[in-house]
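> @MW can you paste both from yesterday?
MW: sure, first one:
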Amino acid sequence: MDSHKFQQFFVEPRVVRIELPVKGPESIFNCRVSLAEDAQLEVLFPPGKLPLGQLRRGFRGVLLCKGEMGVFTLVVAIEKIRDDRHLQISVVQASSPEQKRDHFRVDAQIQLAYWPLDAPPGYQPPVPVKVNIGGGGLRMPIEKPLPKGTRLGMLLILPSEKEHLIECCAEVVRLFQRSNGTREAAVSFFDMRLKDQDRITAFCFDQQRHLLRTKVRIL
């Protein structure tokens, strides 16, 4: 993403999430971001939230943004600590808003079991599977053919939710064949509790945040 696009995004103040390199129970904060002078950004924190004692000019953090362009991230550097609620930051690196879906997705290994809804019921324990997952569905490897439109029952366990079993239904919406001969199916969730969808979305943000924290350490 070029600088003009992210500047357009913040023409009107936006509420976004920022992760800062601080110790303690809170390192992610909701804040309001607006354009400042010299193509920089001004960050407004809620009262009492900005950890002044742990921040210095040049420290880097990550903005997690979601808007009409999609979901994107900005690696930022602190340019000035104005007071106990305001930071002035510059953008060091910006990701492209490639996630055009309503629910952005990440690659992850989860525990998964699925079966056709029209098949005789039977218990299948979830097993580790590498998938591409978001709040609206997932893409998974398959061994047996699953025609488009097949409806499935599903059990999912996320790595950060080992004690929480997500139960839902899904419909096969697309099929893929890789060059190595393996097959994959993309499914769309339905009959899922809103709380479980929120858990998946939070998991995706956490995975994205973990990748960006690694990137910040390297930069």
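MW: second:
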Amino acid sequence: MVTTYNNFWKLWSRALIVSAIMYGSFLVLCFLDTLIKNYRKRGGYWSINSVEKKQKVRTLAQSLLDDVRLCSLSITSLLFCLTMGALRRTFTNAAAFDIPQMWWHSLASVIDITFIILFNKFVARRSLKDLGYPAFNTRSGWIPNPKKNLMRLAYVLCICAGTHFITPLFYKIFGCFQKIQVFDYSKSSVYQKNGSAGVFYFFFVQLVCFYINGVDEESHWRGFTKSIYGEEDRKSPIVVYIISGSVYAGVHALNNGSNDIGVYLLVLFNIISEGALWYGLYSTTHDLVGNWYQHDIDDLFSIWFGATSLAGYALPAGQIAPFYIKCKNKWISGGAFGPGGSIIYIFQNLWTLSVILVLRYIIKHYNTPLSPQENKKFETDQVFEEDFMSSGTFESTSTD
């Protein structure tokens, strides 16, 4: 019991330190953004007229207090997720990643999702629509739209296929394929206990686990971030990108790290960049469901063909991935941290950036106006959504 308590306190104290550092960093960023915005908007802070000067100072003070509130909301969300992660790592074997562990991971994600929905509604005073969730409108909301889903899968698969084609390309360049080992699932404990059905069930649980995890992380680090920082241009876009990437990196602070400062800094750069890029995808498409797909498919590609295929990764090689590769070059394998500390990640992020830029160009230049019939249907759906939202349960109470 004492050991368990000590393990939890060690993880949670690390979570507190990470949260405190990020809170201070976010405050500095937001304060600078507010000062610059107010200076440009008000034409300076000082004026000959003392009444105007007092009004400017009062407005600036209100903006700075709002920054404190926004940063507090963001860090509370981060600290809750880190606390759940510390509890899961304390009471379960996070490194095993077997079927029970994946169900525990899914349960933790469901708790995280429930928290962010309630926190967004009752504390941040934002609606589900602000969070990025589809409206509860059976005509265009939760009922799958085949055309829209095909468009989502098109750009998601383009990103994932490209990024994970880069991985084996680097393996080939550095001669890692000479040490490839294919895992024989007939010798796995899952197969020996339950046969082929057990192996299929194992991969089914993976799909469920990673999809729920994708909904969880995208709701927190993209949906909620845009809900409180990005709406109505509260903060400059560059500030919101940095915050989204930073909290995404912060939530991975409990993962196994590396004592090599070079690898650790590369990890920090890679994960912040990836988080910012995924926020860029969301701000481009304004479709959080597309980000759910992106997160889920990217995790599955990584698990099957990238991340755990590296022997240095924290998860047991071969238990999840169909194969694994022993690569002694730490800049390719990422060392103890895994692929997040690899130079491969830089090129993967560059590919993701290029796809997002192309997608943004297409949306900007080829997004044709609605026809009269489509526009009438859109207006009807909007009235339906507004009536439903104003009925009480999911009404937005934002006064911004």
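> thanks! The two ends are 48 Å apart (CA to CA).
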